Amino acid sequence: MEKTLRILVVEDSEDDALLVLHLINKGDYNIVFERVETAERMKTMLKERTWDIILSDYVMPHFNGLEALELLKESGIDIPFIIISGTIGEDVAVEAMKGGANDYIMKNNLQRLLPAIDRELRESGNRAERKRAEEELRILSRAVEQSPASIIITDTEGKIKYVNSKFTEITGYTPNEVLGQNPRILKSGEMSQDYYKEMWQSIALGNEWFGEFHNKKKNGELYWELVSISPIFDTTGIITHFLAVKEDITSRKQTEQELINAKEKAEESERLKTAFLTNMSHEIRTPMNGILGFAELLKEPNLSGAEQQEYINIIGKSGVRMLNIINNIVDISKIEAGLMDVHMKESNVNEQIECIYTFFKPEVEDKGMKLFYKNDLPTKEAIIGTDTEKVYSILTNLVKNAIKYTEEGSIEFGYVKKGDDLEFYVKDTGIGIPKERQDAIFERFIQADITDKMALQGAGLGLTIAKSYVEMLGGKIWIESEEGIGSTFYFTLPYNSEQEEKKVTGKVVQTEEVKNQIYPKVSGLKVLIAEDDETSEMFMSILAKTFGKEILKARTGLETIDICRNNPDIDLILMDIQMPEMNGSEATRQIRQFNKEVIIIAQTSYGLAGDRGKAMEDGCNDYISKPINKGELLALIQKYFKKYP
Ligand code: ADP
Question: Ligand 1: which atom is nearest the Cα of residue 463?
Fold first, then answer.
């Protein structure tokens, strides 16, 4: 079949051109041709049309064969260029061949032309085939080199033959460091041997393998990769190499993990919220029922004195229980909001232990059990710098729990000195806590017995608060417990003995003071009660009757200042901090500008951030927490208005 041959003839003589074409026509070609005789025209033809070969004269009036050859090279088109000339000498022919001409034919030897064209076309075809392959290879290797995935090629023994630049970027290993090595240099040791085994088995059988690796970089950093490994076969179907394409998914993994954590946290919060609401509802309703129910019963006529006392007792106890739960909620909220302050001062732990012992002894004995305590250090050495109220709260919580969860036997508490710490313990012979719940009970709202939450009263907050306090004070808390045998809660506090000498004296004096208190009755005071809440004011007025002869009342800060100005002989102001118009802090500051003598006792809300410290800064002499405890108030009055013997 005839092949189309597209010839560009560079020739000034039309006759010569026709002669050449005539000769070629004898071949098996269907000829398409164009004759050009200027460089300009040749350029246009090269640009506008496609050619298979160029036949060029050497000497022409407007330009010559070498210039034509140069034009072809500049165009970047790769087709055979044959010079046909009548005048060409050997030196010119050599120069033309060096310049890239494929052949030269003398016009007097034109029978060589057709075979030369045939040969050149054949070779040019081969060259183009090969060139395309090289080009493809170049593109592919560039793609592999620049790939955003890291790529490793190994031989069938797993020796690394190639890594791309992304591999170096991710792992920190240069090609020289890894060529010839096995990819196991990246192993983190975090994945099981079986995982790798399964991968090798799969690819050795000719399958593709997909998975994830937790690998290690040169600098030791761990990272996650999403990996596809596939075998490369030769033309006979034998595996020659393995190709691994890997994507760094460390940050994706992290995000995934964060999402999972967030989800779990959200679910946990949801669960806790429900548990909290159920629990709170029960915990608040129960004492509320006690208070409202028995207050109602008290109204009945004809109650005996004993009955009245019993009902009043129940109302009192329910109130205490209610207050306890509210205090716990406030504490936990403050802890979680990071608002719980620590006030470090010297504290005598022996005194604390003894105080708790005295307080709980009757309750334990009422239950038919025994309470013991143990102080390891002599009292004058038992002084540490810590937050006394928090230590008191921790011990109280643990002892209360011990009493609550023990029906017979004994409870023992105290401390021993161990190294630089005091190790406190509270040991009971109670119901104990199953191993798998021993960590959980320190979490908020968690009780050991999740199946029967209402078994004993409590909101699951005590231990959480205790744990937070222990940690704030630089210690740790743990538990040893066996079901049915009993539990021992331990916690440590740092024992810093340096300050002990200095502070012992001060402390001892104070202790003596407390011991010598005999509460001789204070009376005859002129008292101003600054309080906006009617019930609270009524309660204060009743208490104040025991030490006051004249009682004045103010409902706002401004009123308080007015009354104070008009009555310079007032002895005592019981100052509520939260009042309308002007609060107690501001009122105190203003009163202090004209009266420095009057004793001002602030009534602070339990646990409100900084209330106490602030009250003292404002110029109050002391503070008392609401709800006001009669004994505490009387002790304060005693402190300011009675001289000790
Ligand atoms: P609660 O108000 O429920 O007592 P806590 O945080 O004080 O809350 O205690 C959490 C849970 O730990 C309790 O519900 C109880 O199941 C368990 N627990 C605490 N102390 C003891 C103890 N001494 N003996 C047995 N179980 C205890």
Answer: 6
DSSP-derived pairing of the beta strands 3-10 and 53-57:
parallel
- Across residues 165-172, what is the average pLDDT? 95
Question: Are residues 553 and 449 part of one domain?
Answer: no
Q: Are residues 483 and 360 in the same domain?
A: yes
**How far apart are the C-alpha atoms of 211 and 213, rounded to whole Å?**
7
Test site for ligand 1: of 364, 433, 479, 490, most ligand atoms within 8 A of the Cβ? 433
Strands (E), 146-280: 150-155, 160-163, 209-216, 222-233, 239-248
Pocket test for ligand 1, best of 278, 331, 405 (most atoms within 8 A of CB): 405
Q: CA separation (Å) from 16 to 42, 55, 69? A: 18, 11, 19
Q: Give the separation between CA 180 and CA 161, rounded to whole angstroms.
A: 6
Task: Say whether both 332 and 309 belong to one domain.
Answer: yes
Pocket test for ligand 1, best of 411, 463, 469 (most atoms within 8 A of CB): 463
Q: What is the pLDDT of residues 495-536, one digit of tens each?
A: 975 444 333 332 322 333 333 344 457 888 999 999 988 888
CA distance 355 to 366: 18
| Same domain membership, residue 451 and residue 565 | no
Residue 441 has pLDDT above 80, yes or no: yes
For ligand 1, atom 4: residue with the closest CA: 458
Each residue of 259-274: pLDDT tens digit?
Answer: 999 999 888 778 777 7
Lowest mean pLDDT among 41-55, 230-244, 460-474: 460-474
% of the chain at pLDDT higher than 90: 53
Q: List the residue whose alpha carbon is closest to atom 11 of ligand 1.
A: 447
- Is the Cβ atom of 431 under 6 angstroms away from ligand 1? yes
